[in-house]
Design a protein that fits this description.
The chain has 150 residues and is of the alpha/beta class. The protein contains two helices and eight strands, in the order E-E-E-H-E-E-E-H-E-E.
């Protein structure tokens, strides 16, 4: 599994349907916006490890402004959005290959497990919605952006 983690002042995800209707499906204030990608060999263990890594990642500012605290120690807010394009391969040509990205039937339960694990740890979690067109808006804080792979 891969996750692109961004420390944010705020973040939201809006689902846009085929008729142009819009519905906000998740919103957080200060915390972490996490785009999650799943590949074919990923399973329950990777989902659990990813959730623990996100929860304990020390990228939040302490009282001195140093990245020394985790989201679990601070705001507890996480926005999780599925993102199959994290497994896009751009090595050849101009059009990415999505061969390494897991099919939605495999990926959706694992992303849901990441969300469930974060909630079990105490997080307030907002989410996107699988198999929809989503618009993600955020204000990156720092900016702090990290790519995690488990």
């Amino acid at each position: 599994m891969r996750a692109l983690v961004q420390r944010v002042l705020e973040a939201s995800v809006t689902v846009v349907d085929d008729d142009g209707g819009r519905e906000e499906s998740g919103r957080i204030g200060p915390g972490l916006c996490v785009l999650v990608g799943v590949t074919h060999g990923d399973g329950v263990e990777e989902a659990r490890r990813l959730a623990a890594k996100i929860w304990n990642l020390r990228v939040m500012a302490d009282d001195d402004g140093v990245m020394n605290r985790s989201v679990g120690e601070t705001t507890g807010a996480v926005l999780v959005v599925s993102q199959f394009t994290l497994y896009g391969d751009t090595e050849r040509g101009r059009r990415p290959s999505w061969v390494a990205a897991a099919r939605p039937e495999h990926a959706e339960p694992l992303v849901s497990l990441v969300v469930d694990e974060l909630r079990a740890l105490g997080a307030t979690v907002g989410t996107g919605r699988f198999r929809t067109h989503m618009e993600v808006a955020l204000t990156n804080d720092g900016p702090v952006t990290l790519l995690i792979e488990v």
